[in-house]
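From the methods appendix. Each design record in this collection lists the tokenized structure first, followed by the designed amino acid sequence. Records were kept in a plain field format so they could be parsed without special tools. The example shown here is representative of the layout used throughout.

RECORD:
FOLD TOKENS (590 positions):
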């Protein structure tokens, strides 16, 4: 029997949803939606990037935007920031970030909070006037496509831009493909860094080469079935298929159609492609793809470049770029790009407007967004590079941050997410400041990947961190408090690995002390040049557990007992115990 959401989508989904959003907006917004139909419409709204915020925030929405592979054309960031400034304001200020800001996402895009439904038509009109859309940004559809953030600016082994554009326009733009069994993530990279994280996607295209009829052909190998969440992560596995660039679109579309037609529509906790691939197996999928979905002959996989992957690969700095932060040469004589650090991915609208100004003044106006919630200013000539680096905004979002700021990521958390168990953004910002002040690392350790997810859906990618934090609940001194599970040793790269959980349900005020203790053990016991991931793998579980000892410190951990932060007007409808019982509600639809 199909899940109830399938009936809702069958009645109305895809592009058709937009007209209903506009109708509700015109007739009073949130109040115009019949109360007994709201859950159904909120499911449908997600296709157009609109997510109703959690209990106690009735009538407010989050809007997620799309832009394939992280490219923001000149003028787009400015317009998004103006929308954030004018519309994304809540009833009270966040004590850490104020009001009117935007969030950079791990899929190289942007989301806005505190929007009212009656304002959505004008927001859409404003964004779409500069080519920004929220279509297919949420729900059971193909999400924002991730790709090489610096494509066209740095050398790629095989061009990825044309394929990304075709996926965006023809595949994601096809309303006939809007209704998938669950969300579906695509990645394309033509570089040898692995920055699109193909291992974490439902289908990923990675650069490869293969000798065919005596000719060395550049193209892509295909990987399928990757994803995180629910403590059941799976690295995408090889489909054993090599495609020429001109055939990659057909093969990608074929796999999307195959999953649409045969994916599980009954059990939403078991219907991502990672479960589909495990059920069918790569061989059956490859055979069905060839027989029923593609006309080109599928060649066996070619030689990949995975051994050269450096992006979040746990390799030493001299192996290559581990992210896009810093000042680096780009194609074109005397040209550079400058990657900034936004430690938890949140930027006030005024800062985003200033960033757009700097991109115009010192570059081409174009910006790139990375999978680590950071922006990159591109096309900066060496003659103005020093002046750009001297701008005040770059002292806030530094191209040379601390190792903790450089490696930090955080999901939305209880601030807006209905299934999160802990607050994330503000707590991570406090944690980073505390670690900067209290932990000394060896000089050659340029980054510690510290990822924070508010629950096991793992939208913050804690499973792929040096140190991963997942929100939990625990009892302390007779009270239920916010807590963490702590894992170590994750990362992607050539051989993706997921964290090993070495501490469970550590109260939020004791977790920074545990992180400090394990980092000090790393600094004391590592061999020369050893990265944290390498050290964790070599150290062994028993020693890691002993090193990661929870400890009360002077770290201030507000909101430990709220479950719903005191600065926002949440409804008093759910106890901490009830929230704890819901911790199995994974993975999320986000």
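DESIGN:
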């Amino acid at each position: 029997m199909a899940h109830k959401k399938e009936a809702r989508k069958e009645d109305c989904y895809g592009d058709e949803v937009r007209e209903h959003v506009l109708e509700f907006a015109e007739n009073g917004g949130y109040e115009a939606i019949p109360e007994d139909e709201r859950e159904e419409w909120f499911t449908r709204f997600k296709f157009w990037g609109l997510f109703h915020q959690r209990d106690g925030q009735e009538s407010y929405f989050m809007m997620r935007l799309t832009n394939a592979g992280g490219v923001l054309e000149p003028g787009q960031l400015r317009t998004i920031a103006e929308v954030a400034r004018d519309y994304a304001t809540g009833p009270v200020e966040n004590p850490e970030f104020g009001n009117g800001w935007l969030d950079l996402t791990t899929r190289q895009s942007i989301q806005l909070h505190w929007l009212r439904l009656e304002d959505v038509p004008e927001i859409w009109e404003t964004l779409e006037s500069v080519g920004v859309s929220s279509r297919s940004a949420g729900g059971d559809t193909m999400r924002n496509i991730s790709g090489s953030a610096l494509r066209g600016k740095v050398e790629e082994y095989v061009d990825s831009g044309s394929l990304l554009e075709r996926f965006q326009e023809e595949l994601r733009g096809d309303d006939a493909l809007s209704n998938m069994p669950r969300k579906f993530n695509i990645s394309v990279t033509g570089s040898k860094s692995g920055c699109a994280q193909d291992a974490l996607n439902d289908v990923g295209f990675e650069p490869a080469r293969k000798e065919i009829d005596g000719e060395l052909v550049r193209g892509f190998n295909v990987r399928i079935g990757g994803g995180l969440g629910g403590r059941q992560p799976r690295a995408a596995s090889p489909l054993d298929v090599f495609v020429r660039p001109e055939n990659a679109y057909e093969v990608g579309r074929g796999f999307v159609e195959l999953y649409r037609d045969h994916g599980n529509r009954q059990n939403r906790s078991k219907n991502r492609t990672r479960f589909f691939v495990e059920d069918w197996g790569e061989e059956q999928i490859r055979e069905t793809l060839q027989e029923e979905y593609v006309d080109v002959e599928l060649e066996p996989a070619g030689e990949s470049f995975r051994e050269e992957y450096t992006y979040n690969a746990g390799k030493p700095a001299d192996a290559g770029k581990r992210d896009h932060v810093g000042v680096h040469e780009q194609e074109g004589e005397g040209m550079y790009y400058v990657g900034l650090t936004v430690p938890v991915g949140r930027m006030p609208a005024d800062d985003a407007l200033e960033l757009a100004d700097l991109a115009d003044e010192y570059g081409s106006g174009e910006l790139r967004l990375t999978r680590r919630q950071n922006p990159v200013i591109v096309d900066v000539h060496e003659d103005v590079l020093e002046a750009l680096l001297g701008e005040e905004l770059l002292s806030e979002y530094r191209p040379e941050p601390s190792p903790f700021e450089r490696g930090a990521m955080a999901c939305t958390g209880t601030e807006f997410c209905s299934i999160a168990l802990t607050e994330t953004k503000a707590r991570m910002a406090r944690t980073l400041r505390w670690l900067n002040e209290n932990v000394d690392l060896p000089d050659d350790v340029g980054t510690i990947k510290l990822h924070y997810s508010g629950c096991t859906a793992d939208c913050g990618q804690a499973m792929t961190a040096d140190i991963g934090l997942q929100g939990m609940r625990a009892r302390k001194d007779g009270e239920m408090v916010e807590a963490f599970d702590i894992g170590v040793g994750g990362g992607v790269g050539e051989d993706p690995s997921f964290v090993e959980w070495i501490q469970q349900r550590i109260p939020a005020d004791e977790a920074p002390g545990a992180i400090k203790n394990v980092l000090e053990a790393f600094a004391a016991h590592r061999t020369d040049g050893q990265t944290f991931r390498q050290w964790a793998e070599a150290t062994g579980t028993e020693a890691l557990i002993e090193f990661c000892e929870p400890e009360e410190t002077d770290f201030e951990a507000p909101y430990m007992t709220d479950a719903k932060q005191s600065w926002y007007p949440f409804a008093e409808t759910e106890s901490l115990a009830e929230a704890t019982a819901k911790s199995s509600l994974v993975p999320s639809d986000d």
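APPENDIX NOTE: The longest strand covers residues 203-212.
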